Amino acid sequence: MTAGTGRGNRGGTRVRAVAVAAAAVALAIGSLSGCATLRSVATAPGARPGIDLPSTSRDASPTPLGRPALAPAGVGGYAFTLTHDDGSAVTFDPCRPVHVVVRPEHEPRGGRALLFEALGEVSAATGLQFIDDGTTTELPTENRAAFQPAVYGDRWAPVLVAWSSPEESPMLHGADGISTVLGRAGPDTFGYDDDVRYVSGLAIFNGPALDAQLRLGESEKAHAVLLHELGHLVGLAHSPDPYQVMYDTNLYPLPRYRAGDLRGLEQLGMGRCY
């Protein structure tokens, strides 16, 4: 794998026209590439500390901050967005917290509580520790930089969770130009060869559509959307198993992670500490 920074493919959950259904499709939003390290001895060739990547390591622990829940027995039911040459998943560093900022414009009523509940489920399944860094005015963009020192200081930019609308964001448009997308998400990678890991990411949600679901009392549908996209955020791709939250067309919907999802999330919490 080449060195550099980049964005993972954004998984998408789509809804036809104005109907609010929890149908998901694989709509790629960009190519993924890149990674690097916070260790000055293993930075990507040509990367400049303090300019292209953080110059210091922060929030580091010598051991993982949490431990993933024991996943159900069995095999399969999941897929990873990126893997190393040995087949292991590319992951966030489990010895560092994952900082999160929320862009609240277009946030549905009850959306923040729904988000934190879903993040808690991801944290329990992976052992990854999420830290709420508050709100931001940063707009979601497909080419969002993983390092923004002028905005967030000399550190990796926090994961951006953005509530938006199809009118504001092209990322919430369906490929057919008629349907709209309920959400999309993916991680940012940085590293060099075997040091590839996730360092930030973006999750964007269709605030008006999810607000309509919540107003109709369909909170389980909205919850399923958040679980699906946050699964993409930490490194799950679409599952080939139709009985998992991460299946690309969740018509049921499934408001809780299933066995295959949990097996994949467990592995995403057992990555290497850097």
Q: How would you characterize the overall build of this protein?
A:
Strands 1, 2, 3, 4, 5, 6, 7 and 8 form an eight-stranded mixed beta sheet that branches. The longest helix is centred in the middle third of the chain and has 16 residues, at 111-126. Mean pLDDT is 84; it is low at 1-9 and 13-43. This protein is 20% helix and 19% strand. It is globular and about 50 Å long. It is built from five helices and eight strands, in the order ββββαβαβββααα. By secondary structure, it is α/β, with parallel strands linked by helices.
Q: What sort of overall outline do the alpha carbons produce when their principal axes are compared?
A: globular
Structural class by secondary-structure content? alpha/beta
The number of E-state strands comes to: 8
What does the largest sheet look like?
Answer: 8 strands, mixed
What string gives the helices and strands in order? EEEEHEHEEEHHH
What amount of the residues lies in strands? 15-25%
Number of helices: 5
Gyration radius, in Å: 17 Å
Unreliable segments of 5+ consecutive residues: 1-9, 13-43
Percent helix range: 10-25%
Keyword list:
alpha/beta, 5 helices, 8-stranded mixed sheet, disordered N terminus, 8 strands, 274 residues
Give a summary of the structure in a few sentences.
The protein is α/β, with parallel strands linked by helices and 274 residues long.
